[in-house]
Amino acid sequence: MTGVTGRVALVTGAGSGIGAATARLLAARGMRVVVNYLRSSTAAQDLVAGIEATGGRAMAVQADVREVAAIEDMVRQVQAAWGGIDVLVHNALIPYAVKPFQDMTWEELGGKLDAEMHAAFAVTKAVLPTMTGQGWGRIVYISTGLSRQPRENMIALGTAKAALEQFARYLAQELGPQSITVNIVAPGPVEDTRMARMADVFDDAHKQRQVAATPLGRLAHPGDVAQAVAFYAAEDNAFMTGSTAVVNGGMSMY
Ligand SMILES: NC(=O)c1ccc[n+]([C@@H]2O[C@H](COP(=O)([O-])OP(=O)(O)OC[C@H]3O[C@@H](n4cnc5c(N)ncnc54)[C@H](OP(=O)(O)O)[C@@H]3O)[C@@H](O)[C@H]2O)c1
Questions:
Q1: Does the pLDDT at position 34 exceed 70?
Q2: In a domain, 208, yes or no
Q3: 85 alpha carbon to ligand 1 midpoint, in Å?
Q4: Substitution site in 11, 18, 114, 141 for ligand 1 pocket (most atoms within 8 Å of beta carbon)
């Protein structure tokens, strides 16, 4: 392990995919990691065991990030064990409809917007008191390139994540004076995630076109995204806020 700080990092939706890779990397960098999960109890426990086997520290906590009471209970459990949360990585993937606007109901589009923003709002509210009290904090929201670059059938996800990104920038402005940084990591398509395994989102022909359009010649792995998160979460990364790290191998450049 390098750079041991003992900072406590909460990673939401850390049972699989990007969240799991992020939890592993932050632990390897010396943070105590809270592995939040919804249903993947075994995966979360296995992840904690793997982190501990390599000398890191982690705990798994079940909580639905759409439920305020569950979030508050999770934060209380962490406080009892380790004190407050210093680093928030909000990564949990709230389900959404994959379909054209013309087939979409307001319940589907509005429901995704509401759930995405409510989860981000509630998780952030719950962790902020410790960060503001100590005058130090790191917040990273996981977004997607689809927030800027539309793709067919992804209007619910792309629109909700665009709202999340602007929310992050407002927080960056408000929380900067308290030495809390707020940044966004926006991946392109990531392999070894549930979304990548959904044939209607990620069929082979589509994947081949995406790889061909990527200068670095492959799609992202969860670990690639974790690198950007760890960069923002680092103890000594003190002067970047309101910014976006794009993790897409150069597939689009902006
Ligand atoms: N995959 C991609 O290509 C891609 C690209 C760009 C951005 N992203 C973003 O990256 C983030 C992670 O996505 P992923 O692809 O790694 O997803 P994933 O493999 O499906 O994992 C998502 C995790 O979120 C958890 N989760 C879902 N609903 C939750 C809730 N209500 N409360 C707590 N946890 C919840 C799940 O927990 P359980 O397993 O316990 O149910 C799961 O472990 C998302 O924000 C997504 O939008 C993904």
A1: yes
A2: yes
A3: 21
A4: 18
Q: Which domain holds residue 150?
A: 8-247
pLDDT tens, residue by residue, 219-233:
999 999 999 999 999
For the CA of 38, the nearest atom of ligand 1: 40
How many beta carbons lie within 10 A of that of residue 117, not counting itself? 15
And the tokens for 167? 């929310």
Residues 6+ apart with CB under 8 A from 125: none
- Please state the atom number of ligand 1 nearest to the C-alpha of residue 14: 43
CA 48-54-55 angle, 5° bins: 90
Work out the average pLDDT over 57-79.
Answer: 98
Provide the CA 73 distance to its chain's centre, in angstroms. Answer: 20
Considering its fold, how many domains does the chain have in total?
Answer: 1
Give the whole-angstrom CA distance, residue 237 versus residue 230. 10
Alpha-carbon distance of 172 to 175, in angstroms, equals: 5
Q: What is the dihedral of CA 132, 133, 134, 140, to 10 degrees?
A: -30
Ligand 1 contact via 125 beta carbon (within 6 Å): no
State which ligand 1 atom lies nearest to the alpha carbon of 41.
40
> In which element (H, E) is residue 74 found?
helix 68-82
Angstrom distance (rounded) from CA 244 to CA 228: 10
Percent of the chain with pLDDT over 70: 97
- CATH code (residue 139): 3.40.50.720
Residue 138 lies in a domain: yes
Q: Identify the DSSP state of 219.
A: P
Contact 23, 51 (CB under 8 A): yes
> From the centroid of its chain, how far is CA 228?
11
Write the residue with the smallest CA distance to atom 47 of ligand 1. 93
